[in-house]
Structure formats: structure tokens, C-alpha cells
From TrEMBL:
Signal peptide: 1-32
Protein name: LVIVD repeat-containing protein
Region (Disordered): 59-81
Superkingdom to which the source organism belongs: Bacteria
Amino acid sequence: MRSLASLRRFKPLALVTVGLAAVLMLPTSASADLQSDIQNAVQEFLDVGRTSVPRADCGPGSLPENGMQGDVTAADRDSGRSTQGYRCNMSFVGGFAGRGAGITSTSFEHCSYMGSFFPGDLISEGRGVQVVDASDPANPRPTANLTEPAMLAGTWESLKVNTARKLLVGTGVPVGMGVGYLSVYDISDCAHPRLLNPGPGTNMLMPLPITTHEGGFSPDGNTYWASGIAPGFVSAIDLSDPANPHVVWQGLTGIEAHGFGISADGNRMYISALGGFTVLDISAVQRRDPNPQVSHIGRVFWTDGWATQHSIPVTYNGKPYLYTVDEGGSGGVKLIDISDDTNPKVAAKIKLEINLPQNLDSNIGSSMGGSAFAYESHYCTADRRDNPTALACGWISSGIRVFDVRDPFNIHEIAYFNPPARTGQNLSLWNSPHALASIIGVPLMSAPPAIRAVLEGQFNPSDALTPRTGRLAFGDVSTDWCLSPPEWRGSQLYVTCSDNGFMVLQLENDVYSPPADQESIVGS
């Protein structure tokens, strides 16, 4: 049997050889440019980010991580140290935990809307979507419960706000995918949303012809898009009259359709696929053409991360880019050059040390017994669309991470806050997907990169073996899951995590100066 050292001589995967062999098999009449293009595409498809962004320099008042960047060590989990949380240049101001929060939540002005998770949200005292008033950031308080069918069914990744029109929309997603139900609210008084569509989408006898797992708005707020995961079915729902939501386009966009981002003019959708995304021309829907047609105009796929979550359109000095987030496989966040949207290119990557191929053994070792997700990114928010200065991300078991992105090719971390673990409180967190998913102890979302690390000879079994190795079921909630997009409020962030619920966090030690035109940009 080969030793680990000898396996490392085969660091490039056999897939690279297969890809290059395919290029060599092109007919001799194929142009050199075509061969070069295919070689580049193969390289990009197989490329893995092998460096992490520089660590934050933690100032006074910090309680930093004990292990590598982003890790919650097995020792900290088992000793109870993780119940104190970790912080670097960021502090807790106030919060409302309730019975936990669903997969993603959203906010508007001084209010937060805590996502619901079926069926736990039916049995808690805060049924459906809870509205939280944070006008006093140190003492957020619940003010209302939204209990329409879509809100009770679980909102998964569909709960979104459009600030231009002051609308809140969520769809009903009981288990991974839902059908039919969507509710629209006026949030002019953010603490007391007012239902606008008691008929179509809310009335149990008047479902809409949609499938849904995730959703989001076009920037003008006139269209809400619902994506139904697998197959890649997407629906465009007209909200020009919020009382009468109706479908104006539907279609299959691929074998899978997850989250997305939409360009500022509403003419392009960057719809996530299993690993990468497809660029759709949705201008006909934006214009409300009769019988609108949506065409595929570009795509980029990769193996460095999977279950691509969403994209945030931004510009740097007028040049368009995306920040695209992978939900699985330690893919982190990718900066994508979309100046030619027929041929998007990965320009840079954001990873933590715990996400690197050479550290996946330690990743598995510490995250066993913590359920299906480990140290993956999930949802991020830029602090403005043009020349953003910071990116804040929910990084699941690594908590909330904040990056300086003023120079997109020299990104570094400036702060983090990983909330206190609520270890052993599974049964009281009825609305937390983390608590429910902790029936599973194995970090399944990390399996593909771990297999790759083994094939590359970078996986040391001794580093993966810890006292937690045998915890295959009934996880101990020894970290939180931070899945929601953090949203900017000056030098504060509104964040929601599965176990700790809604929190207001304060950036400290002069690591961040809010731009005058600060705006939370999630992409949809």
C-alpha cells in the first residue's frame, strides 16, 4: 500500500488527466484557440482554492478561536468551551432567541423576520414567522406572528424583503420543496406587517402553480422568483398588484435550480446549479413582453464546492462581478468576472483555513457529531453594490465572518462572531433546523472534498480521528448554524442563526467604517 507521502506525488486528480486527454482527442482540424479554451475550462472546472484569506487581527475585548481559522475544535466542543462562543472585533449587543430560527431570515429598517421551520414552528409559542422589533438594539422584542399557510409551512430560503416597495414575501416549504403557497406583506410599519394577498397564494383553496425551495426579488420589486430545487424549475411571479400575485413565466433552467442573484437592471439572472451557475437573459420578463422567452447565455461550473447557494452582483470601478457562495464542500465564496456574461470567469476565492484541502481531515475530526453541515459558507451580504468595502457572511458552524473587500484581489478577514453553542438544548429549539438535523451526526456536506483530499494524498486519518469520531447520530449542538445573510446597519449587523435566533452585533476596534451609501446587497 502506498504511503501518504507517496500519494502526495499524485496531487493533481486523475480527472485532470482525463480532461486533458479529451483535449488531445480533438480532431487535428480543431483550432489551437479551441483547444486552449477547453483546456482552460477543464482547469477552471477542476481548480481548488488552496490558500485562505489572512486572519483578522483581533483587538481588545476579543475572545478568539483556539484552533485554525474557522474551526471549533473537538476539545472545545467536548469541554464546553464552545458554549462561550468566539469573537474577534465584534460584540453582542442584544438578541431574541425564541425557539430558534429557520434556515434564512431577513430584515427591514429596525425589524427582523425570523424564518420558520416545519414542523417545529407549529408547536412553539411563536408560531410561524416571528416579527422582532430591534429599535432598542439591546432589547429586541417580538411584536407579531405571521401565521398564513406559507408562513406555517416553513419558509426555508424564500423569506425576502424588497426595500424599494417595502414588501416582505415568503413561500411555504415544508420539507426541502413546497408547492402553491406564497404570502405578500406591506412592511411600511415594519413591526406590524399587513397581509396584501388574502386570496391567491394565501387562501388554501387558491394555490399558485409554483414549486419553491428558495426565492427572491428583482431589484424593482415587481417580480418575485421562486426556484424549486430539482428539477431546475423556476417561476416568475408578478407582484405589480401585490393583492393578485400571478405567474408570468415558468421554465426548466437545468437539472437543479437553487438560489440566485439578479443584475441591477433586472435583465440577468445568475441561477445556481449543483456546482456553479447559469446566466439567464430574463429581460423579456422584466419588460413584461407577451409570452416572454428566457434564454441561457452563459455558464460556469466547478468542483471546488457544491450546492451553489446564491450570487451577489457588484461592480468595481464599473466592471461587473459576482460574489458567489457555495453551500457545500468547503467551496467558500468565489469572485466571478462577468464582464463577458457569455463566459464568466472565476477571478478570486475566499476560504478560511478550515476549508482548505490539506485541513479537511481536521475539519471532519472536529465537526463529527455536529450534523450534516460543518464549516461551509451559506449566505453573504455586500455593504453596497458599487465598489463594496465589506462582505459579511453566515459561515454555518464558523459563525458570522466579515471581510474587507475594498481590493477584491487582496481580501482579508477583519472580524468574526461565532455565537455561544446551546449544547444539549436540542429539545427546546423547536424552530431550529440545526437541532432537528442533529439526528444526523455526520458532516455529509463535507464528503465530496474529503474524498478528493484522500485521492490527492492530503487526508491524514490520524488527524480525522478524535473523541468525536463515533458520533454518527444524535448530534450535541456544540456550535450554532449561521445560515442567514447578515444585514448592515451602520457599524452593526442584524444576524440570525438557527439556535441563537436574532442578534444585533457591533463591529469594534475601528476595523470598519460604514460608507455613506451603505446598503445591504444580497442579490435578490
